[in-house]
């Protein structure tokens, strides 16, 4: 039996400690290997994203002044007075102006509603059915509507099931050959209705048309602009860059697809365009700024884009592509379109092209 001072006892203890250390090292080696395998899997998952290539693209675009503006609602430049070229006030001769039906769905946007109504009524378009469909606002909306009621085709305040339902209610009973809806915080730019009517008259095969967009703030000051390339049907299945407030369509395609799908609360305009496209519609981009989108704290685009918006956009992409798609797939699918936009935007800012 080993005693306390027996050197063999110390050797046995040292051996035991060595075994313990070796065991711990083996366990740590296993953990390191697991971590290494996780890193390998992570890198493999990241490889399709090619973040360094995306970063390089952004840097090149920035150096060339080709940073995309589409999708942006915030800009570095200070707000400035909304610029409208003098030629926008010129009204082209229309031999037989088509009747245009415009609906404004409204709910508690009384502070902006008057400017929206003025932007449509001041177009002085000779054949206009302008309807305001309000969901029962409790702010100043009733007073605003009272001031403009005599100039409107119809103004109704009643409970509805949301914006999509209000749009369908507004269009019920209208008869315009050309249709559009304008949210109660957005604007039409001067001459938009005449320009759209002329385009449709000159292009009878076209079913829908949209234009470039101006971004304005709560006070109506200009923040930035979206200059869009020609319409790309494939890109529309991946992302919606069509400015809703500039979109006009013929009643024949509306009747063909059955109006707004009321199950959508955010992406109803994208869904409508995709159904137009699926129904064989010819969609074009008009080379002109037609409307202004207002950015403010209570805007639906600001308040629900990260919840309802993302869910509905995912739903539409699944419908188009039969599966869930990754952000990198969307990026790659729209990249060339964004390059075309950036190039046009740069030429526009340099004054080499005008709209």
What is the succession of H and E elements? HHEHEHEHEEHEEHEHHEHHH
Q: Report mean pLDDT, rounded to a whole number.
A: 88
Which stretches of 5+ consecutive residues score pLDDT under 50? Answer: none
Report the span from N to C terminus. 102 Å
Describe this structure in words.
The chain is of the alpha/beta class and 355 residues long. It has one domain: Spore Coat Polysaccharide Biosynthesis Protein SpsA, Chain A. It is 45% helix and 15% strand. The protein has twelve helices and nine strands. Strands 1, 2, 3, 4, 5, 6, 7, 8 and 9 form a nine-stranded mixed sheet that branches. It is elongated and about 110 Å long.
Task: Write a concise keyword list for the protein shown above.
single chain, 355 residues, alpha/beta, Spore Coat Polysaccharide Biosynthesis Protein SpsA, Chain A, 9-stranded mixed beta sheet, 12 helices, 15% strand
Summarize the structure.
With 355 residues, this protein is α/β, with parallel strands linked by helices. The chain has twelve helices and nine strands. Strand 2 (128-134), helix 4 (141-148) and strand 3 form a beta-alpha-beta unit.
């Amino acid at each position: 039996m080993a005693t306390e001072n027996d050197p063999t006892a110390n050797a046995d203890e040292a051996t035991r400690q060595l075994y313990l250390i070796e065991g711990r090292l083996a366990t740590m080696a296993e953990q390191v290997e697991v971590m290494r395998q996780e890193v390998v899997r992570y890198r493999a998952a990241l490889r399709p994203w090619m973040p360094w290539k995306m970063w390089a693209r952004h840097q090149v675009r920035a150096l060339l002044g080709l940073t995309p503006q589409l999708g942006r609602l915030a800009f570095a430049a200070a707000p400035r007075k909304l610029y409208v070229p003098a030629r926008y006030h010129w009204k082209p001769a229309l031999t037989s102006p088509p009747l245009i039906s415009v609906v404004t769905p409204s709910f508690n946007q009384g502070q902006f509603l008057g400017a929206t109504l003025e932007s449509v009524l001041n177009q002085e378009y000779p054949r206009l059915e302008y309807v305001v469909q309000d969901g029962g606002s409790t702010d100043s909306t009733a007073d605003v509507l009272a001031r403009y009621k005599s100039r409107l085709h119809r103004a109704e305040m009643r409970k509805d099931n949301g914006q999509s339902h209000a749009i369908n209610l507004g269009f019920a009973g209208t008869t315009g050959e050309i249709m559009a809806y304008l949210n109660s915080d957005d604007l039409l730019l001067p001459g938009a209705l005449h320009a759209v009517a002329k385009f449709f008259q000159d292009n009878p095969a076209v079913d829908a048309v949209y234009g470039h967009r101006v971004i304005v703030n709560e006070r109506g000051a200009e923040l930035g602009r979206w200059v869009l390339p020609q319409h790309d049907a494939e890109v529309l299945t991946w992302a919606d860059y069509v400015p809703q407030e500039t979109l006009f369509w013929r009643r024949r395609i509306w009747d063909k697809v059955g109006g707004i799908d009321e199950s959508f609360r955010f992406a109803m305009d994208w869904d409508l365009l995709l159904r137009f496209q699926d129904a064989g519609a010819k969609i074009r981009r008009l080379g002109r700024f037609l409307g202004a989108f207002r950015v403010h704290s209570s805007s639906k685009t600001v308040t629900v884009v990260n919840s309802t918006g993302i869910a509905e956009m995912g739903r539409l992409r699944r419908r188009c592509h039969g599966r869930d798609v990754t952000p990198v797939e969307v990026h790659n699918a729209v990249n060339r379109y964004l390059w075309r936009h950036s190039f046009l935007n740069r030429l526009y800012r340099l004054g080499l092209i005008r709209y």
